[in-house]
Amino acid sequence: MPATPTDDTARADAERFARLLHLSTHATPNNAAFGPPIVNTSIYALPPQPSGTYQYARWGNPTWTALEEALAVLEDAETITFPSGMAAIAAVFYSLLKPGDRVLLPSDGYYTTRICADTYLAPMGVIVETCATAALATRDLAGLRLVMVETPSNPALDLADIADVCTRAHAAGAVVVVDNTTMTPLGQRPLDLGADLVVSADTKALNGHSDVLFGHVSSRRADLIGGVRDWRRIVGAIPGPHEAWLVHRGLETLEVRFSRMCISALTIAQRLAADPRVQAVRYPGLPSHPAHALAQRQMTNGGSLIALTLADEAAADRFIAACPYLRPATSFGGVHSSAERRARWGDAVAPGFIRLSVGCEPTEVMWSALAAALAA
Ligand SMILES: *Cc1c(COP(=O)(O)O)cnc(C)c1O
Question: CA angle, 130 as apex, 124 and 132 as ends, to 5°?
Answer without folding.
Answer: 160
